[in-house]
Amino acid sequence: MKNSVSVITVNLNNAIGLEKTIRSYLLQDYSYKELIIIDGLSNDTSLNIINKYKEYIDFFISGKDSGIYDAMNKGILIAKKEWIFFLNSGDTFYSKNLFNKIFKKDIKEKSVIYGNIKYKNIINDKLISIDCEMLFKNLWKNNLFHQAALIRNKIHKKYLYREKFKIIADFVFFFNLYKKNYKFLKLPLIFSNVDNQGISSTNRIKSISEKKNFHHIYKIKINYLSYYYVVMKVFIFFIVTKLKKLFYLS
Fold this sequence. Notes:
Layout: E1 5-11, H1 15-27, E2 33-39, H2 46-52, E3 59-62, H3 68-78, E4 83-86, E5 92-93, H4 98-102, E6 112-120, E7 127-130, E8 149-152, H5 153-158, H6 169-179, E9 184-194, H7 199-202, H8 204-217, H9 224-249
Parallel strand pairs: 1-2, 1-4, 2-3, 6-9
Antiparallel strand pairs: 4-8, 5-9, 6-7, 6-8
């Protein structure tokens, strides 16, 4: 169906976040959508939450996977709607009429429609807006989050996430589409509130290592000024996180 959306939620032992995400999906005022939940064999109360809302869930599986991108790929292969949107466990829609706003725009021949996200800043616990600029002029600073992007189903099935990248496979996916000249459309909208406990938030050091490896694989010259700037930010994040934990425990 035209302008229909498969919302895919990946979950592992995050029952509280999962219920929050499902409730947000139910509040999304749009009829042409389906909800797919890929659970990584959770051993908390996630399955109870899924059973609680089973009448609203179009497809659900629970099984062992090799990582978040393996789980996301499973969801992609199951998805039946025209567009795919990832809203992982703990994430929520920023507004209840997001899809209505998006599909009022001229989206013909577009492969990816993207906007911004909001997430909780570890330093001051305030929601801040992230500009998902997709110019790829500086591969260390620019990024596009899957929680801020609608991707055409047929394209996502053609280009699944490369699971050799454990942290930045979404970045690599969007970069490949950009280099292959697929058409992107940026909208001045905030798509979602992102739970920053996600894999790319808690593994920032590994993310830098993977991005450096990505530069070597694609034979891209590294901008070391930007590289060390990102390293410094990660170091500051690490220190602040440790101090907050110490303060909390005391």
